[in-house]
Specification:
Elements lengths: L5 H9 L4 H13 L1 H11 L2 H23 L10
Helix pairs in contact: 1-3
Length: 78
């Protein structure tokens, strides 16, 4: 993909791209600052990004608990 295509970006955000289409769009994003900026703006405002970072951090903590404990020995905190 060599051209900017916001429809593809919208489909990426919605999780509607096939693996191949997603790979192509990601390669396009690596070289296209305009599309990266548009995608960041479209993905959410600062409050949404902050919430995503908080959620991602909690997810990492749960994954750590699960991987560090023997199977069935400790439940991850809720």
């Amino acid at each position: 993909m060599n051209t900017c295509d916001r429809n593809t970006g919208r489909r990426l955000l919605a999780g509607d791209l096939s693996g191949r289409d997603e790979e192509e769009f990601v390669r396009h994003l690596e070289g296209c600052g305009r599309c990266r900026s548009w995608l960041e703006e479209s993905a959410g405002d600062q409050k949404a990004w902050s919430a995503a970072r908080d959620l991602f951090g909690c997810s990492l903590e749960v994954d750590h608990w699960r991987s560090a404990a023997p199977t069935g020995a400790v439940e991850a905190p809720q």
